Every structure is written in structure tokens, then in C-alpha cells.
Amino acid sequence: MAKAILSGIFDQGSFTELDRLTEDCEVVTGFGSINGCPCYAFVQDADLNGGAMGAKQASKLIKLYDLAEKTGYPIIGVYDSMGGHIDEGLGAMQAYSSLIAKADRLSGVVPQIAVIKGVCGASSAIWALCSDIVIATKDAQLFLNKSGDDDYVDANRNAQIIADDLADAIESAKSIICALPSNNLGEAPIADVSGDACTCGCMIARIADAGSVIPLNKGEEYSAKTAFARLGGMSVGMVNVDGEIKSKDSKKIVSFLGICDAYSIPVITFVNTEGYCNCCHSSLKAAAALTKAYANATTAKITVINGKAYGPAFMTFAGNASGADEVIAISGSVISPMDPEAAMNIVYNKRILDGEDKQALLDEYIKNEASAEKAAANGYISDIVSEDELSAKLKISLDMLLSKRVSTLDKKHTVTIL
């Protein structure tokens, strides 16, 4: 069964099994191609001792990781294991530790996609979540410690994509592999795609090539949407912020931005927000982390203001702190240091006290102080276009940014307060 799953990941006839003569091993490894792109993969065999992990299984997987590091090709892993070999004691934990160290070493070097097919708990779950993208089937169990709460098996909290079944999960993994470069030194392939337009009902759906959108972390609880997509055949990451930005929205975008930046995938951010939610103490830290993530990302970044961009939200996505290479506004967008009505009450306070109409004053304030035209005149945004012109404008900008290179200070990493 595991070999059949592994063979089905690759293009027909391209699968080659590694260490095929190893007897009674609960993991099968191999390599092949996906749409012509070389890739490694492994499948845990739950039919054999529940897919238990031990020294022999880890040794086989470490060889696969070593090959991926040497050749610069991505890894897809199908996780389905009841845990470690109990008879090996702490040796089983050391096996997991070795795999986690390998996965971490390759993080941001070659794409790693985890597909959770069955049970993936405790140490195995930590190992799986060291991957760049986690895809889980609806009935998968992804947890740290079992408890009396049924939510411990809820993969929705940890997976970026929830698939109907294993076949659907593998197709999603293959689509992501084709959207990313083979490694952090390569380039994502240009590809024409076809299919139905995305139904996410936001700017991503209206701008991306039809049939190219791969949404991540879908859910009505998010104001932000993230997706891999293509624009004119070029692979891009798209972020759509529509509404108040909650802490979980910030964390979602930070995670997605990290993947795009690691593999130099250009990021297009659509902004229509009045700002951050102040509903809990974690909101401020999440807002700071999001702002730092944009500031630190050196991949090509284009921001499109397609409605509202107020205060700190403008600073995060479009201000100097964002490091955006280009900031474009859709005609009629409102760009303000704070809510325009609140600003109007301060700036035009005397005129309000004199009895002038508040709506007329608000319209005047927006036109004179908070319009896209005013922001462009001051050099805060680079262009104003209609929505019909936006796709062509973005394609030109992406072409211009293809050769972007950024030198950074000599440091290990930025420090983020969690």
C-alpha cells in the first residue's frame, strides 16, 4: 500500500524506490518527478507495526534528507504512524530528534510538504510541523498530547490545507511543489494553467490566472486570505486583507510571508482595512511581528490599496517599514493616518462647532487630506490605477522586479517578542 501511494505521487514511470531491499521497514522512500520537476518522497506504512519509528526507519529517512540537501530537490512526506518503537526506549526519541534536526536544517533550503494521512502525534507531529506546508485529510489526527477533549484530533488548527481524502491531499502537495522553486537558489517555473476561477470572493480571485489559486488556511474566522497563485504564468504569493486585522490574521500572514521570502516568491498584498483589532493583549505583539515580517522580507513586494488603509495598517503594508517595492492604489481608495471621521473631528473642530455639515466636511477631508491622489502627490504611493488596469500594471511591475537583490546586515536573525 505504501509503495502504491509513493508511486502515485510521481509522474508515471518516474518513481525509483530507495533502499528497496530493506526488510520489514515501516517507511518507504524514493524519488521521481512531478510535472517534470525532480522530487523526493516518503510514506510511513501504518500496515506494518502501525508505522512505528525507530533507528532503522530514521536511518532510511536521514539518507533521503541528505540526498535532498546535496541535490537541492524538495521533499513530500506522507505521515501515518502510531508512534515510536517502544522496545527501543529513548532510542526512538533520538530517532525523531535526528529527523527534526534534518528537517530544520533544510527549512527554507528545499520545500518540504507534509501530508497527514492518519495518526500523527507527539514527536511525530513536531517533526511534521517542521515542514513548510502541512496538508491533512479530514479524518487525520494531528496532536501533541492526547486529552479528553476531542479537539486534540482537529488538524484544522495546524494544517494549512484540509483535503477531502489522501488523493486530494497529494494533488494539493503536487500543485504546491510546482508553484515553488526546487530550492532557495532556484526560480519557480513559469507555467500556463487553466481551470475554474477561484471562488474566494476577493481580489485574489479577480486578479490571479484562472485555475492557479491554491488557498492556505481557509476559514471564515480570518479577515486575511493567503494563497499561492500565478499572474501571467508567474508564481506569486497573494495576501488579501479585508476588514479588521486580528491576532490570528497577523500570525497567518507572517507564516505565509516566511515561506514566500525563503524561496523568493514575489508577494502581492491587497489592503482594504481600517486597522488592527484591539480585542486582546496579544494583538499588539502580533501587529509588531507582522510589521517586522514585512520589513525583513527581501523578496519582491507589491502592495495594492483597494479601499481603505488607515494608520498602523498603512505603515505595515505600504509605508516605509514594509519595504514595499511598489505601492499602487485603486482609484477612490482612502489613505489616512487614522479613521477619517475621527481626524475630521480634530482638524475641522471649529467648523463643526460653527454648525457646518459633518458629512460635507468628511467628504472635504477625504478629498483634500486622505485621498489616493493626495498620497501620490506626497510620494507615499507610486501609482493610481482602475481595477481594470490593475492586472496589466502588476505584470509589468513583476517583470521589473525579477532581478531584485537585497544586501542585509551581517546578523544571525531578527529578534521577535512572542
- Going by helix content, strand content and strand pairing, the class is alpha/beta
CATH level 3 topology of the largest domain: 2-enoyl-CoA Hydratase, Chain A, domain 1
Major β-sheet profile: 8 strands, mixed
Tally of alpha and pi helices? 14
Structural domain count: 2
pLDDT average, as an integer?
Answer: 92
Q: Estimate the strand proportion.
A: 15-25%
Radius of gyration: 24 Å
What is the total tally of β strands?
A: 17
Helix content: 25-40%
Q: Based on the structure given, which CATH architecture of the largest domain is correct?
A: Alpha-Beta Complex
CATH H level, superfamily name of the largest domain? 2-enoyl-CoA Hydratase, Chain A, domain 1
CATH level 1 class label of the largest domain:
Alpha Beta
Spatial shape: elongated
Uncertain parts: none
* N- to C-terminal distance: 43 Å
What is the element layout, followed by pairings?
Elements: H1 2-9, E1 16-18, E2 27-34, E3 37-44, H2 55-71, E4 75-79, H3 90-106, E5 112-116, E6 119-121, H4 123-128, E7 133-137, E8 141-143, E9 161-163, H5 166-179, H6 203-207, E10 214-216, E11 224-231, E12 234-242, H7 247-262, E13 267-273, H8 282-296, E14 301-310, H9 311-317, E15 326-330, E16 334-336, H10 340-347, H11 349-353, H12 358-369, H13 372-377, E17 383-385, H14 387-401
Parallel strand pairs: 3-4, 4-5, 5-7, 6-8, 7-9, 12-13, 13-14, 14-15, 14-16, 15-17
Antiparallel strand pairs: 1-2, 2-3, 10-11, 11-12
Helix pairs in contact: 2-3, 7-8, 10-12
